[in-house]
Specification:
- α2 (about 15-25) packs antiparallel against α3.
- It is elongated, with a radius of gyration of 18 Å.
- The mean pLDDT is about 90.
- The protein has a 4-stranded mixed sheet, with no helix packed on it.
- The chain is about 50% helix and about 10% strand.
- The protein is an alpha+beta fold.
């Protein structure tokens, strides 16, 4: 948790400022309104979330209200307004995954792994977003997507335990870019 609080305070806005100045030059108020989502995506790409300082910079740069920025940040499920864990897991909780047992995975995450309100484990290893839509891999149900690119299928409590063990092993050796087997 301490690392997440440090991340919240120590944000270098210079890279975002440079991107906004180079790519986000609205011609009028309407175009500025339309550029907010893209600017927020840039911030999230840089920091892994959209820190309050970045949201304020975006609002000021585009000449929109901070309420407009936060309105979009809280409307779209992919935006994070809290620092994420080291890894990010989208857990499908759509119809096919629900029928295949995703609720048991959700229950295990909440009880065994003590997911915080923001979806992050107490050790900051993993942030989970339980997605009530569909990840488009129903043949793997229940399915999750790790770090926005790797699908983990037939997910159950045992496979979840294996996933945590693998992620902790990666952390212990200092690497996060290996694929799971």
């Amino acid at each position: 948790m301490e690392e997440r609080e440090t991340a919240r305070r120590e944000i270098d806005l210079q890279p975002l400022r440079r991107i906004l100045e180079e790519r986000y030059r609205p011609r009028d108020h309407q175009e500025a309104q339309e550029l907010v989502v893209g600017a927020c995506q840039e911030a999230q790409h840089l920091y892994g979330w959209v820190p309050p300082q970045a949201a304020q910079l975006i609002a000021e740069h585009l000449g929109v209200t901070i309420n407009r920025v936060y309105g979009l940040l809280t409307f779209y499920a992919d935006f994070r307004t809290e620092p994420p864990g080291e890894h990010f897991l989208w857990l499908c909780h759509g119809a096919a995954c629900y029928i295949a047992g995703s609720q048991k995975v959700v229950d295990a995450l909440r009880t065994e792994y003590r997911l915080a309100e923001d979806g992050t484990t107490p050790d900051g290893l993993l942030t989970v977003h339980i997605f009530n839509g569909c990840l488009g891999a129903c043949d793997l149900a229940p399915v999750a997507q790790l770090d926005h690119h790797e699908y983990i299928g037939q997910l159950d409590e045992n496979r979840l335990r294996e996933l945590f063990e693998e992620l902790r092993a990666r952390r212990a050796v200092g690497g996060n870019d290996e694929t799971l087997e």
